[in-house]
Amino acid sequence: MNDGPFDPQGVVWQAVSPRLTTVRLISTAIALAVPLAVTLVIAALVEATWVWVLPAAVLALGVWAAVLVPRQVRALGYAERDEDLLIRRGILFRALVVVPYGRMQLVDVQAGPLDRWGGIAKLQLHTASASTNAVIPGLTPQEAARLRDRLAARGEARLAGL
Questions:
Q1: Three-state DSSP class for residue 103
Q2: Quick one: which of 10, 18, 60, 155 is 20 to 30 A from 33 by CA?
């Protein structure tokens, strides 16, 4: 199915690892744990019944994230073409980033503690443009290393042709 500018014809998209879903859900749970604990303490100490709306709102936010995060991860993808790399993301607010190999200056692989625990890494491309948001999260470490080496080689080959 061709979906206009966000799904060019003939492009075979590579999905990111589904482990990214688990890592993002754990990260969200950690971020919501403190607000949930604080609102529960406040609700327990205050005698007004309406205050229980606060911890309920934090829980609702957690449920919303549990529904949204898997869809966001499924929407992530990348594709290598002859002259450029395509990265797509987003459900409601979609984005397609096209990075020509000749514009790449640095290919960076990163993994925080939670990423390493989940067995994933993030590949970030740096170009001459400061506003480039070329990041592919949720790659297996092997795929991130392979892609880093391949993109760096392609970038060097394109720069040598200038």
A1: helix
A2: 18
* Helices of type H across 4-127: 19-45, 53-75, 113-118
**The model's pTM:** 0.85
Residue 64 neighbours by CB under 8 Å, 6+ apart: none
**Phi/psi-derived region of residue 4, left when phi > 0, alpha when psi is between -120 and 50, beta in every other case:** left
Looking only at Cα atoms, what is the longest distance across the chain?
A: 73
Second-level CATH architecture of 77-160: Roll (2.30)
Report the percentage of the chain scoring pLDDT > 90.
65
75 in Cβ contact with 122 (< 8 Å): no
pLDDT bin (cut points 50, 70, 90) of residue 144 is very high
Q: Do 107 and 153 form a contact (C-beta atoms < 8 A)? A: no
CA distance 57 to 11: 41
Structure tokens at 97: 């980033």
**Distance, CA of 133 to CA of 124 (rounded, Å):** 8
Shortest CA distance to 67 belongs to which of 117, 122, 28?
28
**Pairwise CA distance, residues 126 & 106, whole Å:** 5
